[in-house]
Each structure stands twice: as structure tokens, then as C-alpha cells.
Amino acid sequence: MGSIELQQVRKSFGSVNIIKGVDLQIKDGEFVVFVGPSGCGKSTLLRLIAGLEDVTGGKIVIDGKDATERGPAQRGLAMVFQSYALYPHMSVRNNIAFPLKMAKASKEVIDAKVARAAGTLNLTDYLDRRPGQLSGGQRQRVAIGRAIVREPSAFLFDEPLSNLDAALRVQMRLEIGELHKTLKTTMIYVTHDQVEAMTMADKIVVLDLGAIAQVGAPLDLYNRPDNLFVAKFIGSPTMNIVKGPSADKRGADCVGIRPEHTDISTTAGEWPGTVRIAEHLGSETFVYVDVDGIGPFTVRVDGEAPLHASDRVFLTPRESRLHRFNAAGARIAA
Amino acid sequence: MAIRKSLGRRIGVNLLAWAIGFVIFFPILWTIMTSFKSELDAFAFPPKFFSVHWTLENYKEVLSRSNYPLFAYNSIVESVGANIVGLLIAIPAAWSMAFAPTIVPERKETRMLYAAMLAAILIAAAILYLIGDARGDWRIYGPIVAIACIPVVFWIATRRTPDVLMWMLSTKMMPGVGVLVPIFLWFRDLHLLDTRFGVGFMLMLMNLPIIIWMLYTYFKEIPAGILEAARMDGASLLNEIVYVLTPMATPGIASTMLLAVILSWNEAFWTLNLTTHDAAPLTAFIASYSAPEGLFWAKLSAASTLAIAPILVLGWLSQKQLVRGLTFGAVK
Ligand SMILES: Nc1ncnc2c1ncn2[C@@H]1O[C@H](COP(=O)(O)OP(=O)(O)O)[C@@H](O)[C@H]1O
Ligand SMILES: [Mg+2]
Q1: Nearest to residue A63, comparing CAs of A28, A98, A33?
Q2: What pTM value is reported for the model?
């Protein structure tokens, strides 16, 4: 069991409000990703759930019971830290066994569980090494191993992959995804990388300045961003925002068009402009256009496109995929 | 880019280092040399270097005249015992300051409360001092009350870790003689004079600020995330300190312990004033050879050599550990 509920959770450090009243429901077995720019309070929110920080206000309910006053050891959650936080003076075996020893498990149980976790995570050959003798990816696996032996009701990950190189990051991402499929345990995963968020999450929580900007399934956020912040944060390259007559015409303060939802033509279209740079990747082409009277605009074209710097082009947004926002930055329903 | 220095300059620096080392070591060398001279040679002026009749007489005399093993035993028990207890108190204290510091922004009310409490304590102390005159020793308790209450004032009024650290250091700024009389009377009333427990207790109190400061700086080097991981893994506070913090800080703890033992071993003010015979450590053993009716240089030197020998050997053996501990954190 691992349902978690946050009710009006607030946190201040001194006089600075970092988390400003967060309400959130996480169902048992869900993979939830907290995403947002650096400094928006993702780690703080995770640490509040873990019990490593005390809330300034609000309630944290775990499995239907109020856990706000409980210490980290009593919440039944496991955490994987960005810095791995392995015990440098213990062997890999003892690192993984540590939570079981703290729970006073018998030696046979400890040995069996450590062996099983090591098997799952390909660590069997490294059990007698110290963390200092392992590579980054292996350390990350030890940290995960230490978390899974406790059989927690939920896992908390704080940017676990950000210290790994790109290739390893993709691999570990898949491994964590598979782990979730096997264990079916609730996972809360913090990242500033929206690609990680989109690929891993059942549910994404977008945070902005300590408040929830939007909660939803990855494609919901992509297709129906509630506000400009989410619109600009989700999707790569970022959504183009257009103000002025083109927005007024559509009854909005500004409109957002994703690069992949814009048609580009050398003959006719709504917005004339000049190509600044065209990036040809083969599978796709990114065209950076200076639109007359609007400014920089990014277009993504599938496959190859015969466009080059200083070509004159015309852009046309696909009306059905266009997002309208009011002056406060909120979405205007279709 | 490595910094290149000319050969001449390197020789110069080396010579200077040796010269400084020699100047620092010379008194010890001279003491050791004197301990092997006859009293007459030891007195000779200008001092004799070569035409000396080397002898072990002084050692024989000193060892037969006083009970060296008892003094040595007292020194060991008091300096080691005091600092083991000191460590047991200091580790949790340093833990809390390094990993759970209280940094409350200073507010006007806090400062006023602090000033009011300080004033109240000083007034109470003054009253005790004034009316105490009529009641024998009572006046002595005025300053004691004042001094004993200052930590409490700090705790209640500020509760800020940096202040507490500063206050602890400030206790080392006051000369011990300032509280000698009250503490002597306390020891007398509590029957702690000339007991190993009493001396150990005093040495422990004396070193506690240094031990806490040193441990605090070592603990600061340990990533807080590792202790948080232990907490998430279900470790109680005690388990966190015993299984995670202490093993990780072993080099730092060891060098703190060594330094504290050396300081206690050499402490002469309290040990001389609070002991007579039963609990007297090696400092008292040395002092017993400096008599007012004339110094016996050679015997005094022999006694000094006997007194510092154990700690010199300890320091020598633990040199590596000490240096490693003192640079702990610099090399991760
Ligand atoms: N212990 C603390 N004391 C004071 N400010 C803190 C503390 N922890 C975090 N903050 C502040 O809270 C904000 C959010 O931090 P954090 O949750 O780490 O952001 P994120 O993980 O989203 O990058 C930052 O501005 C940070 O400076
Ligand atoms: Mg963070």
C-alpha cells in the first residue's frame, strides 16, 4: 500500500515561503514525477513527504493515516538521493543490508534479501567492494538496492540520474521504469528534465515557485496546458508564443503554437518571415525563422526539408492544435 | 603549473625550517641533556657541553625518592578518562550543531530578553555577594551563580548555534585563576579535592569546548545527505551516530582525542591546585622538585623527562593519525 495525500502543505525557511499550499493525491502504485525549473521547490516538497523537513503548515497523509508528525523512519518510505548518499565506510553488501539491520531482521532474511536485490540490480559481483570503488551507475544501483530491500510503501527519487552521463541516464531510466512495473510500488520522482518526466510518469506534477502549476498525464499536459508556464515548460523545443493582432483575431491575449504544429511553405501562409538557421538532423529539421512583426519562431519539420538561411518562408499554425491564453496566462477553453 | 623554486631558495627555506624546529625543540633537548648531568655540571656557567660527566644518578634518586608509577598512573587515568567522557558528551553536541543547527534570525525581542536575563542574574549575583559576607563563605557563590547561568541565558535567549559555539570558545578566554577560589571551595565541600574523579571532571570541563569545536569542524565535512539516508533507512538517532557518523569521523575523533589527552597531560594549573598526593599526576611530580630553597636542576630535568616521555612516545607513534586527522576533509 502506498497512497499519499498532501493537504495544503506549506513550508517556509525563515521568512521565505518555499512551498505555498500544495494539495495533491497520489494513488497506490502510481509513478508520479515532480518537474519544474531549478529552485522551484521540488526537492523541498519531496523532503517534506520523506519527513526530512517539518512542514510549516498542512497535513501529509500516508495510507490513510496522518503522518505529518512522524519521523522519516516511521513513514515506511525509501529515498534515493541525487548524491547517492551511500555509506562510504561500508561494503556494498552492508550498504544494502543497513535498513534491514536497523529493522532487526534475522541474518538469514538479510542474506536472502541482499542476494535477491543484488541479483536484480546486477551487483552480485560487487558486494564486497566499497562504494568508492564503483562507477556512477553502479553506485546508483546500490542506492536503489538499499531502497528496495525495505519493501517500502513508496519510493522517493530526487534527481537520481543527474550525475550520470547521457547514455547511462537513458539506460537507468529504462531500468527504473522496469523496476516500477515489477514492484508496482508507488514512486515519486523529482527531475528538472521534462523529457524524463514525459517518458516515465503516469502523472506529472508541474511546480512553479512552490505551487502546483498543473497535474496530469504527460499527454494531457502536452495537449492541454492549463497555463502559459506549463505550455512553455513541457515540450521540446519550447512552444512559440505569439502576441498582437494574430492573437487578438483569435480572441486571446496570446496564442501558443508548438514547433511541430506549424506548417512551413515557400509560397503562401499566414506569417511571412526569413529563415535564420535551419538544423538538418535527417529524421527531422528545426527551422529558426524571424517572422515579420512577431519575432523569433521555431518550426519542426518531419524528415528533410530543403530550407536554408535567409530563405523567405510563410508559416501557418494548425488551428486545432493552437492554444489560447488570456492576459493572466490561463488557458481559454475552446 | 607547478611552482618552481631555485635550488638556492629551497636550501634557504630548508635551513630556516630546521633552524625554527631546533629553536622549538631546544628546551626539551636541553632538559633531557641536563637530566644526565651531575647537579654541579647542571649549574655550571658557561654551560658545559662536552666535558660533562654523564650519569644516571638523577634518575635513580628521583625514582627512589618519589612514587613515579602512582603519578604516571594518575596522569593516564585522569587525562584519558576525562577525555573519553568528554567525547561521549561532545559527539552528540557536535552532531546537533553540525547537522541540526538553530539559526533563528535575530529579533529585537530576543535581544531584549537576553539583556533582561543577564541583568537579573548579575543583580542576583551582586545580592548574594553582598549579603553573603555575613554568612561565611556565601559571597563566593555570587560569581559562581553568575558564571554558571551564562550558558542557560544563552540557551534560552538566543538558541542560535553560532552563538553557542562562540560562547563556548569564549570560556577559554577567561583565565582559570579567576574561578580558582570558588571552584576550590566547591571541590572542598563536595569532597572532590585530591580525587581522580575530581581532577578528571575538571580536565573534562576544561577541554570540552575544544573537543566540541574540533568535532564540529570535522562533522561539518560529512555530507548531511548520508545521515539523512540513514534516517530514511530506519536508523534511530543513536544508530545514526553510532553506525554512520562515528565511523565516518574516526580520523577526526582520534586526532581530537589525542590533542585533548596531550592538553590534559600537560595541564598544570588545576592539577597542582586540586591535588596533594592521592590523585596527583606527573605535573605535580615535576613541581615537587622545584623547591623554594634552591633548585635541583638536574633532578628537576630528570623528573620532567620522565613526565613527558610517555606523551612524547604517544605523539610520535600517532604522528600519522594526527596529521591525517588535522587535514581530514582536505582529501576526500
Ligand atoms: N534548508 C534551507 N534553508 C533555506 N532555504 C532553502 C533550504 N532548502 C531549500 N531552500 C530554498 O528553497 C528553494 C527551493 O529549493 P529546492 O527544493 O532544493 O529546489 P529544487 O529541488 O526544485 O531545485 C530554493 O530557493 C532554496 O534556496
Ligand atoms: Mg533539487
Answers
A1: A28
A2: 0.81
